[in-house]
Design a protein that fits this description.
The protein is an all-alpha fold and 539 residues long. It has a single domain, classed as MFS general substrate transporter like domains (Growth Hormone, Chain: A), CATH 1.20.1250. Helix content is 72%, strand content 1%. It has 21 helices and 2 strands. It is a multi-pass membrane protein. Pfam families: Sugar_tr. It comes from Psilocybe cubensis (Psychedelic mushroom).
Length: 539
């Protein structure tokens, strides 16, 4: 196992010997970190954050930039990407297995999506808020384990109720991946490398590619034939493809969890620790990571204590006294405090509200379209006289391949000065919606596939930017909560999509028009976000 515990460092010093004047904590911290941030501004230049936390974060940002991008951060990029991979694979499963599962169990299709999205909603709220209360480390490891175990078990389901229940619990695990993983990565990466969070969407695209690559041969070759009025009943023995797919992906997810848990040792987030007043632990972790990277850090406890003030000192003593004996009431108080921090001032409340709205609207539009994409392709194929499972999953595979270069394009787009994160999100959302509208003009199967390739490319760009801009804007000590709220919004609206499908004809172009208009509207909202993270250090 790669470990950080074999490293010791001196964590106290005399950095505060000459800091006994009447300057504010922010003034002292900005003076202390001026040389490092001569070319990188801080995201928050107002009173959005508590002064003591803001001051300590300035010092911590300097220390992380001083360490630089090393082995620890690259390993963290890899294992955090596993969460993107899982979050891509498992929600997509609903659409890929829908046709053969309906053939076997005979239920109303939207109910399966409803069950999975309910689990994703619970997971986003529970793990997102929980990682700000209990810490990032254990939440980071548990979520992937839950997804693998219950995803694997779902392959053995003998009826719809069992399948939906197991996939719902799987969703509880998957729902926490992105809120936690994006927070963890930003907690350790230098400001000059924050764009890598956008590039992490490459794992999302790879997840789409892998799941479609597996689904194509398994479901196409081990499923009941397309149902007709004279077809015999679809039996389990003739319909094992979707089960093989769940077994394979469940095992793969557990393998990724094992790499996370046994090969890489995640240190607790120093941003989380200073938010709890545990300065000495935060400094110790910074020094361990520096040693792991083969470098050193000049950060000391005294530097943090010099700007700490009584509030954080008292909080630190309280945390030490309580240890792990946190009651449910105390946990609720902590959680409410993290939510309040995201609405502390009018500007940050406006920013948080806009981010939640953008996520919710995109969640509704994308779920409405993506979860029934195979149905749309199949029904259109029937009109074009090429409706077979093989063609349907071949087309899904092609769409997933198109997503790979989207991660590179998104990373380039967000670094364009004239666009930044907000402009890039608006442009990609507008193009995503435009390609959705264009699909309604298709008169051949190949034309429909071509328009969907454009949609796949720009929707992957859009998601890559969306999953990065939100955690970059939220303060570090409340980042999990903010990520949880935005993810919960997309899951809540995702629950609405199957309900719409229950009362609408999903084989028509109606969901396409609705989805396209909503996505374009969400892009216009992104331009109103008051903070632009490009070129600024996350706090």
């Amino acid at each position: 196992m790669t470990t950080l515990d074999d490293t010791t460092s001196k964590t106290r010093g005399n950095a505060s010997d000459d800091i006994h004047d009447e300057k504010s904590p922010i003034d002292m911290a900005e003076k202390d970190s001026h040389t490092t941030y001569s070319s990188t501004e801080n995201l928050y230049q107002d009173d959005a954050l508590e002064p003591v936390y803001y001051a300590k974060t300035l010092i911590l940002n300097r220390a992380i930039e001083e360490i630089g991008m090393g082995k620890y951060q690259y390993m963290l990029f890899l294992v955090s990407g596993f969460g993107w991979f899982a979050d891509s694979v498992w929600p997509l499963i609903t659409g890929l297995i829908l046709t053969p599962v309906v053939d076997e169990f005979g239920f109303n299709p939207p109910f399966l999506s409803l069950a999975v999205n309910a689990g994703l909603l619970v997971g986003a709220v529970f793990w997102g808020l929980g990682c700000d209360v209990w810490g990032r480390r254990w939440c980071f490891n548990i979520t992937l384990f839950l997804a693998g175990v219950f995803g694997l078990a779902a392959g053995g389901a003998s009826n719809f109720i069992t399948l939906a229940s197991l996939l719902a619990v799987m969703g509880v695990g998957v729902g926490g991946n992105l809120p936690i993983d994006s927070a963890v990565f930003l907690d350790f990466v230098p400001a000059s490398r924050q764009f890598l969070l956008t590039f992490m969407s490459i794992f999302w695209c790879l997840g789409q590619l892998v799941v479609n690559l597996l689904a194509w041969p398994l479901i196409a070759n081990f499923s009941c034939p397309v149902a007709t009025p004279t077809s015999p009943p679809c039996t389990r023995s003739a319909n094992m493809g979707w089960r093989y797919l769940l077994f394979t992906l469940g095992g793969l997810t557990l393998l990724l969890w094992a790499i996370r848990f046994f090969v890489f040792e995640l240190a607790e987030s120093p941003r989380y620790l200073i938010g709890k007043g545990r300065d000495a632990e935060a400094v110790m972790i910074i020094h361990k990571i520096a040693a792991y990277n083969g470098t050193t850090s000049t950060l000391t406890v005294d530097q943090l204590a010099a700007v700490g003030g009584g509030e954080f000192s008292d909080k630190q003593q309280e945390t030490k006294a309580e240890g792990k004996k946190l009651s449910l009431t105390r946990t609720s108080d902590f959680t409410l405090g993290h939510i309040k921090s995201l609405f502390r001032t009018r500007k940050i409340a406006y920013s948080t509200s806009l981010l939640i709205s953008v996520w919710g609207i995109i969640g509704l539009a994308s779920t409405l379209y993506n979860n029934f994409l195979s149905f749309l392709l199949n029904s259109k194929g029937a009109h074009f006289d090429d409706a077979t499972l093989n063609i349907t999953y071949r087309n899904s595979f092609i769409l997933s391949v198109v997503g790979i270069p989207a991660a590179f394009f998104a990373t380039w787009l967000v670094e364009i000065p004239q666009l930044g994160r907000r402009g890039a999100l608006a442009v990609s959302a507008a193009l995503t919606g435009a390609f959705l509208f264009a699909t309604t003009t298709a008169r051949t199967s190949n034309a429909l596939l071509g328009w969907n390739c454009g949609y796949s490319f720009f929707s992957n760009v859009m998601y890559g930017i969306l999953y990065a801009i939100s955690p970059e804007i939220f303060p570090g000590k409340d980042r999990g909560t903010g990520n949880g709220l935005t993810a919960a919004a997309t899951r809540v609206f995702g629950l609405i999509a199957p309900i719409i499908a229950l009362y609408a004809d999903i084989t028509t172009s109606v969901p396409v028009y609705i989805a396209g208009a909503l996505i374009i509207f969400s892009g216009s909202l992104a331009l109103l976000i008051p903070y632009e993270p490009r070129g600024k250090a996350a706090m």
